[in-house]
Amino acid sequence: MKKSPLPMVQNTSSKDEKRTRKETLVKLLRWHFGYQDFRGKQLEAIEAVLSGRDCFCLMPTGGGKSMCYQIPALAKRGIVLVVSPLIALMENQVMALKEKGIAAEFLSSTQTSSVRNKIHEDLDSGKPSVRLLYVTPELIATPGFMSKLTKIHTRGLLNLIAIDEAHCISSWGHDFRPSYRKLSSLRNHLPDVPVLALTATAAPKVQNDVIESLCLQDPLVLSSSFNRPNIYYEVRYKDLLDDAYADLSSVLKSCGDICAIVYCLERTTCDGLSAHLSKNGISSAAYHAGLNNKLRSSVLDDWISSKIQVVVATVAFGMGIDRKDVRMVCHFNIPKSMESFYQESGRAGRDQLPSRSLLYYGVDDHKKMEFILRNAENKKLQSSSSKGELSKKSLTDFNLMIEYCEGSGCRRKKILESFGEQVSATLCKKSCDACKHPNLVAKYLEELTTSIARQRNGFSRVFMSRSTDMIDEEFRIDEQFSEFWNRDDEGKSSEEDISDFDDETEVVKSLPRSRLSRKSGVDEKIELLQRAEENYYQNKNFDKLKNKVDKNAISETLREASKQRLLNALKLAHKRLGILNIELDTSASFLENECYKKYGKSGKTFYYSQVASTVRWLSSTTLVELTNRLGPGTPSVPVSKEHPPETPPSPLLEQRPPETTNLKRHSSFHSPLLEQKSPETTTPRLDHTFQSETSMNTSPSESSSLSTKLPSIPSFSEFVNSKKEKGNHANTSQNQSHMRLEKTGEKRLRLH
Ligand SMILES: Nc1ncnc2c1ncn2[C@@H]1O[C@H](COP(=O)(O)OP(=O)(O)OP(=O)(O)O)[C@@H](O)[C@H]1O
Ligand SMILES: [Mg+2]
Q1: C-beta separation of 711 from 671 below 8 A
Q2: How is 200-215 classified by DSSP, letter by letter?
């Protein structure tokens, strides 16, 4: 339903006229949005763009930047074009505006062509009804759309171009989107349309970059303080806690039924933590780019409509999400920069009511993030030597985050000073843990220092400990080792989860790719890692390690959550493959037990990686493989949906004696870590025929014993060796195949 139009704003300059204009704008605000008055610098920004001036608007998260282009759209006949980085963000805003009776639309590839055509017809009509048109930067770059904009402009109907989240244009910013770079063409094509750039990113370098890149002319630069007085800042130290999962769970419980966001670095953590919270009676769901669009939308809807209270998410969740009553934002892993932290924690308390930011800091998380950033930095350095300065920036930015966690003194001051704001000592008013409980925080920091020193002396873990600095200094992580990185998504590198953008491709394209081809020196480093692993398992320094291992121990709760994950994955496999001849609950226990047996002593990270890899295996495995691993007996004929095995289902766990885990590997066993097949099995094949052939070549007695005696999950050394062999084998096979192809000039079956 559309509202009746209010008087249009005139561009006038006398004092009275100025007052009248302000009154009209306030009337529009009250009429359409129900707010009493403008906040902060909103009015100045609105007046500037209405007078035709470019404006750069720097406001804190939740400060009300959207209003700076929404009111101008209502104040003048014509269209305001809004460029926004995420489709979800556009959808949300358009929906909210439509609910208020404001004619807003968005154009994106997710719409049906009939919806898009309708919008285009309206735009071409000469008298468009739409007042706010949201588009992606990619669309702006297309010649067709640019000529449409030019046409609208020649009819005098393009009032303003608003670039929301404008920091995305700057490679100095924390959310750089290459597609935003294309927006610089707007000024060439539409030189006299005012441009409004909006961001909550305060770094001066980013500001200058935005102004230059968008070619803003004599812009009015409006900036407000970044202080969020209604947010209480706190850091908890994972290394000093028995169980961070349990700690978060009790914090959330003690707060009552609050709305919260928990950010994690990795998708697996989101899944595990969300399962843990749910199990403890907290209504929660995981949200990350690994879920399909439908699932993500339903999680978002449920959270926005308060059906669930807590979303456990990667950074894919949040940019521009406008739920005002978020009472707590928790970072379960350290964010990559102060800018990211500020943006994400700033999603708390947008209604200006007291809220909380809680960060769980762990030394392992620190190392992991540092490793990811260094890896990304190395990649950038290799791709362009001129970007050296830029590459180092990520580590410098991260150091501010470390200082926030490990340093003493007011947290608020640290945040604001990192953005160049000078802050008085009294500003915080005891609204951070360091100001409210200085002695306690000092004690924690001391304990943390001791714990770090202990870890430095001991060798806590192959990848995550400080003693691996010398390795990761040069060692370029290969995607293939991602299992040991607690990664849940093959083919995507660690950086992806940091960006975790879900709808655009360019960021994904810019991710580090596998470096298998760059072999130089890698073998030595692998050997180094293997030696490290051997040392570790020999437990020579067990006493020194004990403390750390305890901290890293796998709790029953974590095991239960993992079992739940495996059960869910089994259910999905059950759906995908049809009726499975296995008992799901027992099989989940069995698989979890396998992971625990293998990595129970190595600690959470390895154990959790193994769970993750098993989950992935379940998502892609065939019925034969699954039955071989979990079912009652090896089928002597290929198993298919049409020909299920005749033996009745019987849970494997009871059938398997403990010593059988060391028996020789069944050829049809498909380990998620060890995909390599023995040389004799590497003939051209289709998956199913291969499985059935191997099964048929096995004698019945062998077959039944193999089916119950499952192979062990490979150790890190086995995994590394298998990858090496696989690499060598692939090279040999490729050479042979290449020669054959050259000879025959014919394309044959692709060799593995
Ligand atoms: N003048 C106002 N008075 C009261 N509430 C307002 C006012 N202007 C905006 N708001 C409300 O403040 C909330 C935050 O606004 P908005 O989403 O525009 O913030 P933002 O600056 O874009 O934040 P972010 O950086 O997170 O995108 C919204 O719910 C909005 O309706
Ligand atoms: Mg916004």
Answers
A1: yes
A2: ----HHHHHHHHHHTT
Query: What's the rounded Cα separation, in Å, for the pair 143 and 149?
Result: 10
Q: How far is CA 465 from the centre of its chain?
A: 24
Reduce the DSSP state of residue 364 to 3 states and report it.
helix
Q: What secondary structure does DSSP assign to 13-32, as a single string? A: -SHHHHHHHHHHHHHHHHHH
Cα separation, 562 vs 75, whole angstroms: 55
- C-alpha distances in Å from residue 44, one per residue of 47, 56, 57, 69: 5, 11, 10, 12
SS3 content of the chain, % helix, strand, coil (to 5): 55, 10, 40
First-to-last C-alpha distance (Å) of the chain: 61
pTM of the model: 0.58
Return the pLDDT at 66: 95
CA of 404 to the centre of ligand 1 (A): 27
- DSSP for residue 481: G
Look up tokens 């404008």; give the residue.
Answer: 166
Q: Which residues contact 556 (CB under 8 A, 6 or more apart)?
A: none
Q: 629-640 b/e with 16+ CB inside 10 Å = b? A: bbbbbbbeebbe
Contact 147, 96 (CB under 8 A): no
Mutate to test the pocket of ligand 1, among 59, 67, 86, 99 (most ligand atoms within 8 A of CB): 67
> CB neighbours (10 Å) of residue 15?
7
Tens digit of each residue's pLDDT (9 = 90 or more) over 128-176: 999 999 999 989 888 899 999 999 999 999 999 999 989 888 876 666 7
Tokens coding 342: 């500020």
Ligand nearest to the CA of 66: 1
d(CA 324, ligand 2 centre) in Å: 12
Q: ipTM of this predicted complex?
A: 0.99
Q: Work out the number of other CB atoms within 10 angstroms of the CB of residue 417.
A: 15
Tell me the HSE value of 723 on the side-chain side, using a 13 A CA sphere. Answer: 20
User: Do residues 58 and 200 touch, judged by C-beta distance below 8 A?
Assistant: yes
Token pair of 622 as six digits:
């065939």
